[in-house]
Amino acid sequence: MKSGLFHQEEQVMCDEQTVSLVDVLEEDEELEEEASAVLAGSDSDHCSYPQGYVKRQALYACNTCTPKGGEAAGVCLACSYKCHEGHELYELYTKRNFRCDCGNRKFTELQCKLYPDKDDFNILNKYSHNFFGVYCTCSRPYPDPDDQVEDEMIQCVVCEDWLHGRHLGCVVPDCVELQEMICESCMNKTPFLWTYAAHLAVPGAAAQVKEETGGNSNTDIKKKDQVNDVLKPSSKRGHEEVEPSCKLKELQEIGQARIQSGAVFWPSAWRSKLCFCNTCQERLSEADLSFLLDESDTVLAYEKKGKNNEQNQQGHDPLMSALDNLNRVQQLEIIHEYNDMKTELKDFLQRFAAEGKVVTPNDIRQFFEQQQSRKRRRVDAGRFYST
Asked: Which pathway does it take part in (predicted)?
């Protein structure tokens, strides 16, 4: 998944796949960074239920407690650790305006260990097929053992479902990590977004823009009439009160249209260019899209918060504080020893991968025993030659 993580238990098999051990080591730093971005924005020790409908948080669904065929439910990060340890969990990445369900009436045999006093249901929560471990318009699991096509998955910022790039109905642009995507289904449910798309969206294969002139065809006229219908104020305000300050109306009057097909990608800061007039705010509210006017709602904003939290926590790490108290020579010695051990461990695992052997706990134990033995020999040698 793009910009997302899924807690998955990986098994090292005694076959050709054993070589993935090296890949795991090489990608460890990247995975840790992604994990801190997603998880550090959520509390791993306390159930989020008392906070109400949290603006955005990491969520999980438990297939052990609420399997397919039952009622969908979601649990917060802390409950996934404390209440559902050893269960089969689906990681949902992050979702907005959600309240933890752990232990409520949807869980017939489980009581929340962290906050048992919950209402029977959270009526404002929104659920989708993601809560049963399937995603995209194809309703397939992730990872999909039957899918041999390498394809990234991208989350729609409106419905928050994850879709395969090949099922978006458009070409996925470059630097997609810095962009937001709205799927075709959500675009069609809120047609006025197509007006914004013609002016603000990232150009793509499905985005063919054309100028409307006085010689419009009947099709173009019909499409323009449809847009005008969408732009009519939902309240009884007079036309003269809305038109001067409505950006959406001004964009429509420019006469630029876009083929209404496929998902739409939006560049960073596109939300700040939406219309904030009273009529448009009401329109977005009626469509349950008020969050689009909030730039802090974005996943990038959430991830940035998570990274900052992680950095602040690291600033209070006693091990880091101890390292800071060492002199420069001692610091360099520790760094060199750590890098040497990391290199030797990688080489050690590489040999197992090359021979197609499984690494056992005893192998790892022997490796660190050898490391300790070498360290003792270096210390003894240093003492022998010291004067």
From this structure: Protein modification; protein ubiquitination
Query: Alpha-carbon distance 307 to 38, whole Å?
Result: 8
The answer to whether 146 and 224 have CB atoms below 8 angstroms apart is no
CB atoms within 10 A of CB 144: 15
Please give the radius of gyration of the chain, using alpha carbons only, rounded to the nearest integer.
27
> Could you tell me if residue 63 is inside a domain?
yes
CA dihedral of 15, 21, 22, 27, whole degrees rounded to 10: 140
Among 273, 296, 311, the domain-final residue is 273
Q: Write down the pLDDT at residue 7.
A: 39
Determine, yes or no, domain membership for 9: no
**Other beta carbons within 10 Å of 323:** 13
Query: Within 13 Å, how many C-alpha atoms sit on residue 306's CB side?
Result: 23
Domain extent at residue 109: 26-132
Retrieve residue 26's tokens.
Answer: 């090489």
Determine the length of the chain. Answer: 387
372 and 261 housed in the same domain: no
CA atoms of 230 and 286, how far apart (whole Å): 13
* 3-state SS, one letter per residue, for 357-383: CCCCHHHHHHHHHHHHHHHHHHHHHHH
- Looking at 257, 273, 289, the residue that finishes a domain is 273
Residue 54 forms beta bridges with which residues?
Answer: 98
* Rounded average pLDDT over 168-174: 92
Same domain, 101 and 157: no
The whole-angstrom separation of Cα 187 and Cα 158 is 9
Are residues 151 and 166 in contact, defined by beta-carbon separation less than 8 angstroms? yes
DSSP letter assigned to residue 137: T
DSSP 8-state secondary structure symbol assigned to residue 191: T
Number of domains in the chain: 3
User: How many Cα atoms occupy the beta-carbon half-sphere of 18 within 13 Å?
Assistant: 16
Indicate if 83 and 39 belong to the same structural domain.
yes
CA distance 315 to 307: 12
Q: Same structural domain for residues 157 and 118?
A: no
What is the chain's mean pLDDT, rounded?
A: 79
- pLDDT of 304-350, one tens digit each? 888 777 666 655 555 555 666 666 667 677 777 777 777 888 888 88
Q: Return the amino acid letter for 319.
A: L
The number of beta carbons lying within 10 Å of the beta carbon of residue 119 is 11
- At which residue do the structure tokens 């928050």 appear? 160
pLDDT given for residue 125 in this prediction: 98
